[in-house]
């Protein structure tokens, strides 16, 4: 059994054992991994999301729908979302539903803004009005910051901004969450609290989204084509999917037990060794795969703007939560590619469970 040696229900001080947990965006990349982790911890998971993008996505491949209450819905549909809150009465909420792609936001700006801002408002309204909810972790993005392409990482107190519609939508979502926190969840007699979480470029198995470098690499390598790289010199913070999820789970458990310490905004990113150019990541992917190559697509001045440099300062999470990045970039890439090399859905599910178990053991080791 892949998870032997881990007492999952008692992880995070048993915060999720038999707890009703609602995840918006559970069919997405990070949402699917969070769903699996919570089911291993014996949580009663209710998922609310659009269908997975493809049948190869992690949610579908791991057949997670059979393990949870799996609901199809759009976070822009306030009435439907409200009915779900009223029927299932969740105690903990993780909000991940979003239009998550920068380049797609140029093609669909209004839909991106509506989904990422008003979708967040709809979740917050239901958190506010549903008596059962005690804690909500609202996931945004490292791109919420006003990116000046500075050499040092952004801290939680830095200004929100956004050059493109996606980044602007995440900055706005942060402002909305802060307004709700101050207006409705800060009073001593309110037994519910929220926080926001911002992560860097997250990689892992089961992501087939367009215009993301790891899925692009795998598609090209599997078909024998050179990997097309748009911005090989762009520097990004790369981290394995379980790293920020551990942070999200830590926050949710903390909001239930010691909310004053866990409210506010939090960064979860890798250490500086994993903040590297795209071209360096692609070279390592090719080396680990054992074959292939890549080519610079040499985009012209008419291509959509994408930041050349972005990193996070995660000292707040390290110092106050004891959270830290534990996997090297090489380990993250190796674990990611292992998923794409797995041949059957059963193998992918077992691999996901094994990677979660191994990561939990890693977190139990002394820092």
UniProtKB/TrEMBL annotation:
InterPro entries: CDP_4_6_deHydtase, Epimerase_deHydtase, NAD(P)-bd_dom_sf. CDD domains: CDP_GD_SDR_e (cd05252). Residues 21-242 form the NAD-dependent epimerase/dehydratase domain. It comes from Acetanaerobacterium elongatum. Belongs to the NAD(P)-dependent epimerase/dehydratase family. It comes from the Bacteria. This is CDP-glucose 4,6-dehydratase. Coiled coil: none annotated.
């Amino acid at each position: 059994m892949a998870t032997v040696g881990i007492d999952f229900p008692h992880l995070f001080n048993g915060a999720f054992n038999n707890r009703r947990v609602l995840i918006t965006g559970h069919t997405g990349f990070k949402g699917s991994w969070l769903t699996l982790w919570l089911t291993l911890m014996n949580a009663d998971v209710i998922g609310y999301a659009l269908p997975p993008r493809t049948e190869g996505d992690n949610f579908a491949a791991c057949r997670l729908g059979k393990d949870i209450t799996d609901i199809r819905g759009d976070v822009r549909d306030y009435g439907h979302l409200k009915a779900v809150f009223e029927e299932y009465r969740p105690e903990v909420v993780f909000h991940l539903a979003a239009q998550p792609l920068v380049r797609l936001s140029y093609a669909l700006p209004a839909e991106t803004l509506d989904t990422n801002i008003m979708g967040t408002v709809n979740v917050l309204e239901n958190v506010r009005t549903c008596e059962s909810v005690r804690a909500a972790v609202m996931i945004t993005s490292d791109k919420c910051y006003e990116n000046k392409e500075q050499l040092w990482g952004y801290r939680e107190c830095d200004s929100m901004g956004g050059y493109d519609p996606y980044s602007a939508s995440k900055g706005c979502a942060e402002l909305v969450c802060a307004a709700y926190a101050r207006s409705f969840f800060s009073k001593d007699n309110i037994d519910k609290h929220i926080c926001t979480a911002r992560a860097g470029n997250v990689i892992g198995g089961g992501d087939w989204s367009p215009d993301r470098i790891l899925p692009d690499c795998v598609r090209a390598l599997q078909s024998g084509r050179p990997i097309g790289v748009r911005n090989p010199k762009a520097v990004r913070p790369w981290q394995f999917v379980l790293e920020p999820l551990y942070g999200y789970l830590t926050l949710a458990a903390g909001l239930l037990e010691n909310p004053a310490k866990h409210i506010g905004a939090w960064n979860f990113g890798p250490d500086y060794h994993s903040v590297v150019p795209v071209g360096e990541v692609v070279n390592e992917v090719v080396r680990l795969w054992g074959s292939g190559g890549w080519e610079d697509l040499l985009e012209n001045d008419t291509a959509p703007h994408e930041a050349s440099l972005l990193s996070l300062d995660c000292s707040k999470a390290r110092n106050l939560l004891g959270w830290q990045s534990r996997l090297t970039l090489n380990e993250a890439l190796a674990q990611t590619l292992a998923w794409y090399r797995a041949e059957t859905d059963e193998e992918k599910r077992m691999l996901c469970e094994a990677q979660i178990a191994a990561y939990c053991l890693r977190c139990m080791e002394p820092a």
